[in-house]
Write a structure and sequence with these properties.
This protein is α/β, with parallel strands linked by helices. The protein contains 5 helices and 6 strands, in the order βααββαβαβαβ. The two termini are 15 Å apart.
Length: 191
């Protein structure tokens, strides 16, 4: 993304307090719940999408899912990004297993990008960086970055073709042009 201006504000969030406990299984994803709760109605209305990139360090097949509430725009942007990269991505419905839940329940288009391939060390003391696969992580990172440009493309299309920076589709382009400085920007939350 370096060297390219996005036509929206990008927020990267790293949430804690995710795990369920046997004592209180209904309490989970505390960090993302707190973040969404802290947003005013105006701030929520400015969030175009939330992409939760969670559990992508193992496995070879990425999948994207959502809970099924509201708009599927974020999921469609992930699929468009995957297509632009020539990737096959699994599609599914998710349970409330990642930080996208709070956003989606608040009416914000959300998607969960994961490999969800079982690993015996997940959520154990052995769940360390030693078990992170460079290839899987790189693939997820490339897809997440392309997602940002698919969102850009959508924002620019909505702005109309007369914009000076609207020469080509950022999501499908083989190169990404710089955008005009000083644009008023909606926000995108991307975990």
């Amino acid at each position: 993304v370096k060297g390219n201006r996005l036509p929206y504000e990008l927020r990267l969030a790293f949430f804690g307090g995710e795990e369920r406990t046997p004592e209180q299984p209904e309490i989970h994803h505390v960090g993302s719940d707190a973040y969404v709760s802290s947003l005013s109605a105006e701030e929520r209305s400015r969030v175009l999408a939330m992409l939760s990139v969670d559990m992508v360090g193992a496995g070879k097949r990425l999948s994207v899912s959502r809970l099924g509430y509201g708009s599927d725009a974020a999921m469609q942007w992930v699929l468009e990004a995957a297509s632009g990269l020539g990737l096959s991505v699994g599609i599914g419905a998710s349970e409330a297993w990642s930080d996208h839940e709070a956003f989606e329940l608040a009416g914000i288009p959300s998607a969960w990008l994961t490999t969800m391939e079982s690993a015996p060390y997940w959520h154990t003391p052995q769940d360390t960086t030693a078990h992170v696969g460079k290839e899987a992580l790189t693939l997820a990172g490339r897809l997440a970055v392309r997602f940002l440009y698919c969102v850009s493309d959508s924002v620019q299309t909505a702005s109309g073709p007369s914009q000076p920076w609207r020469e080509t589709s950022l999501c499908r382009a083989s190169y990404w042009r710089r955008l005009v400085p000083g644009e008023t920007s909606p926000a995108v939350a991307c975990q």
